[in-house]
Model the fold of this input.
Amino acid sequence: MWTTATSDTKHVTDYFLRRVTIDLEREDIRQEAIACQDLDDFLGGIARSFQLLAHYEVQDAFAPTAPLIMNLGVFSGTDLMTGLRIFFSAYSPLKIANNGRPLAMWSCASDKFGTKVLAAGVNEVIFLGRAQRPVYLLIHRDDTEGLTLSLEDASDLLGKTTHEKILQLADRHPDSHVAALGPTGEHWQQNFYAAIACSTVNQLHSRDCKPRFAGRGGMGSIMGSKNLIAIVAQAPDVHRGKLPPALLEANKEISRGPGSRNYRDPDKGNGNGGTWRNVAGLHPIGALPEMNFRPQGNDKPVVLYRKSLESNSHYFIKDESCFKCGISCHKNIYAAEEENGRRKPGKFFTKFDYEPLDLLTINLGIYDQQQALEIVELVDQLGFDSISLGVTLGYIMEYNQRHPQQPIGDGLSFGDFHGACRVIQRTAAGQLPEVGRGVKRLSEQLGETAYAMHCKGLELPAYLPETNPGYPFAIAGGHMSMRTFLLLVFDGKTDMDYWVDAITNPNRGVYYMRDDILGLCKFAGAPDKVIEPVFKELYGVEITREDLVHATQRTYLRGLLLERQQGTTVDDYVLPARVYERNPNVQLPHFITPEFWHELRQRVLQAFEAQIETYGLREAT
Ligand code: SF4
Done:
């Protein structure tokens, strides 16, 4: 963003952003400078894309007229640590209302792709139409020509994995970063949860498969439906010189403060080891999803604790990071090698994060270290959302356990690693649409919905739904957009007032979306008090915590109104019915009864209704 205002103190409306609108069908590319109208425009990310989505009438997520919006938050691509996020927003083919209409959704990814988009001078791209040939968008900036955008032939990329496409394009366009589909996104008619893989500095340097994914909600399927196979951002890095004091202070807090502690390793300011720690944390209390979200009460998951792989001499675990991030939350696993009596990393296997690890292994009854490495890597290469895929496969395995005479999904059963890999490959190739279209459609088709783990069609992340009644109110998945997961573990509260407040209080559950506006990583846990002076330092604007709370709540409520606009009713806000059955292996209070749920839902929706009135949003949408 830029401004022509010269005074030290500026207003958000002094700023302009560059929007590019691309009609893929006509190969027409239009650039415009947009003046920020208000705080939400200025902050960007989903605060802006949700306002844009309200202008589109979308009945079919794959209709050429449906937009795919790629944009940045106010801190994306800046020197504020973890300010790396790029957002993809659209009406999702996967997240749907009971009437079948697509619902608004976003997904985002870190590392340097967003930084390169900003370096090229672009803040937002709206993709419309469907290209008549497979194309990739080249966003290019250099000192002589300035910014140029072109659609390039992508036919030689088809059939390649996420990693292969990224390397091929990065080699072809030096000093670039890349967002690309895998085969899953190319078969979008059959696959509704394809991810968009964004290249990382580490990946391009090491040539190991280490992209970051905008995974949730099928943003890669939408991109595939537009015949847009990849996006390349090629621009020289921006060197801004010595960091000013508030920025330095904020970066220190982000890299070593308490907010990011859970994601760091012990040698980095006494960290707790990353998301992988959840396997060892949740398993002993029976809160780890196993065999389609049914904790089994045995020791089998122990083999996939981090300490179990650490004590296996075959593996070397190394914490690595996104571009310039001091948290280093990536736990990358390599074959261990010996050199001069010292262990060192050899061949790269994959990265373990809690969600893909649990949902592609333990949730499928697979308890083997090498198999875990292989299945996680396979899913990354093919470009699936690992959460949606793992949940759908878990459902199929339970269905087959219940119906051994009429199995589905190639007869998959719990623990069948080779069968699961085969189904994954066939699904990516578009051969198993019943798997690729997600668990809501599959379970409704089969007439067995009670154990289909989704809300509004979006498969649940790896936290048991009987521990989180906030799930149905999340706009973009329960571990990304509503901070009510794990509350039962930490607070142990089961009373109605506590949960209504956790979901509706603007300072609690919904405030988790703040970083989806600003462009920061949620793992940074950046306190508002360190961000406030950075606004002043970088942009000359005064923005307070209160402003951020209101902007976040407004954006949430806009998301809710976008759902209403598509025809959701109270019946769209439901939990999987199995939450009402108590699993004796879950060592947490069982408190969600049908009565509890119905009263909670009524109070939550009433509270949001009142907030919509207070913010005056109904008229605006
Ligand atoms: S915390 Fe992890 S995901 Fe977030 S920016 Fe840092 S390395 Fe990337």
User: Anything to note?
Assistant: The two ends are 26 Å apart (CA to CA).
